[in-house]
Amino acid sequence: MRATFLDRAISIVSPRIAARRVAQRAAFEHLVGSGRRGYEGASKGRRTDGWNATSQSANSEIEAAAPVLRARMRDLVRNNAHAAKAISVLSTNIIGDGIVPRSKTGDDALDNKINALWERWSTRCDADGQLDFLGMQTLACREMLEGGEVLIRKRPRKPSDGLPVPMQIQILEADMLDMNRASILDTGAEIIQGVEFDKIGRRTKYWIFPKHPGDAHAYVAAGFSSKPVPAAEILHIYEKQRTQVRGVPWGSPALTTLRDLDEYEDAELMRKKIEACMVGIVTGGDEAEMGLGIPTAEDQTPGVYDADGTLVERFEPGMFLHARGGRNVTFNTPAPTSGHEAYKRSTLRSVAAGFRVPYELMSGDLAEVNYSSIRAGLVEFRRLVSSVQWQIIIPMLCQPVWDWFIDYATDAGHIPVGQDVPVEWSPPRFVSVDPFKDAMAALMEVRSGQRSLLDVIAETGRNPRDVLNEIAEANALIDKLGIKIDSDPRHTDKSGILQDPAVIAAALSEGGGTAKAKA
Description:
Blueprint: H1 5-13, H2 15-33, H3 58-79, H4 81-94, E1 100-103, H5 108-122, H6 133-147, E2 149-156, E3 167-173, E4 183-184, E5 190-192, E6 195-197, E7 203-208, E8 227-230, E9 234-238, H7 255-277, E10 278-284, E11 304-305, E12 319-323, E13 327-331, H8 340-355, H9 359-363, H10 371-411, E14 423-426, H11 435-447, H12 453-459, H13 464-481, H14 501-518
Parallel strand pairs: 10-12
Antiparallel strand pairs: 1-14, 2-3, 2-9, 4-5, 5-6, 6-7, 7-8, 10-13, 11-12
Helix pairs in contact: 1-2, 3-4, 4-6, 7-8
C-alpha cells in the first residue's frame, strides 16, 4: 500500500500517526477486496490440501490410465450387476433394434434396387460370419461403452466368395491398437498411442496387432508385433471429450464408487453370516462341569470352545459355543442394519450419474417414481442418446460403412459409375411412456405442418414408402371385399363414426375444395 501525499505531510509532524493511517487503509482494502475472489476452485489452503490435479494433455492422461480403466470396467461388467445393467441400458437405447439406412437418390427404381442390395449384403457383412449389420452396431456400441473405443476394419473379398457386394467388416477391440507404439518418424510423421499422423495432423495408419495381446497364444507366435494398416481401412469409434487420440470407458468416474459399494455389500453380508452362525454362547461354571476336558490352569489360553473342547477358529451355522467362566446361556440376536438401503440408493445415484443413465433404469427401483418425474428424466436421457446416435454412431460407424458399401457396389457394377447415393438414417424409436399422448402430439405436429407424415413414420425405424405402400394395398383389399371399418379415415370422422357415403359425395359435389377439406 503506497502512502498518499497527505500521509507524507502528516509524517513530517507525526510519523507514528502516518504509519497507522497507511496500515489501517491497507487492512480496509484487504477486507473489501476479499469479497472479490477469483476462482475459488483454484485457491490454495486447508480445504484444498491433497487435491493433486495435473495439467497434462488428454493423450498423456489416457496413455497412463486407459489400459487399467478398460480392465477394471470389464471386470465390473462381468461381475457387478449394476455395471452390466448400465452398459446394457446405454447400448439398447442408443442402438435398439438398429439404425437403418435408406437410399435417397431421388430415383425410386434405383433407391429400391440399392436398398434391396443393402438388405442382402447386411445379413452377410460380418467377417466372423455371425451377426448382421444391426447386430454389429450393438456389439460395436458395447465395445465403445465398455472399452472406451472400438475399431472397425474393412475386409475386401473376392467376387468368387459369392457375397452380394465383395466386402465385409470386422470388429476389433481397443486392445488390438498398439498403445505403446509412439514415436516421431524421420518423415515428420508422428505416432501417438498406435495412431500415425502425417505432418498436418491427418490420420494415415493404425498400428494393429495380428492377434489380441491378451490371448494366451498371442506372444507364442514368432515376431508378434503391431503392423501398420492404412487409415482408409479402419474406423475408430469413441467419444471425444477433449482433443484426444484414444477413448476411455464410459462410467470411468463411477468405477471407484461402484467398487466400494461392492466391498461394502460383501462386508455386510459376511457380518450377517457370522452373526447367524452363533446361536448362543454358554458361559459360567468351570470347564469340568461343562464337559470340555479343558485344563483349568491360570495360564490356559482364553477362548471359545465347542462341546468337544476344541478351540473354535471357524464358524458354521447353528453353533453353540462355550466360553470359560460361569454357566449361563446367551443367545445371539443378529442386529438389524440401519441405513443400508439409504446408503445403497444414494451410492447408486452417484454411479448412475457417472454412467450418464437414469438411476431408475439402472437400478430398477421405481418406488419413488411417478409419471411426471420419469418422463422428465427420460427426456434428458433421450437427448443424450440422440446426441450419441447423431454425433458418434452415425458419422463414425454407419456413414463410413455405407460409403464403403457404395464404392464396392459401384465397382461390382450394381450402381452406375459416378452416381451420387445420399442416405437417410433412421435410429430406433423410443418406447413411449404414454403412447396415446405421444401419438396425439405427432398427429398435431403433422396437422399443423411442423412435421411430415414421412418423418413420423421414419421415426419408427421403418421405411415410409414401405408403410404407405402397405396402406395402399390394405385399402385396395378392403374396398375389393366391400368392408368398412371405423379405423378407415376415408369413411369415418376423427371420432371413428362411420359416415354415409351419399352425404360425403353430396358435400364433395356442393362444397368444392372447402367440402373436400372438411371431408
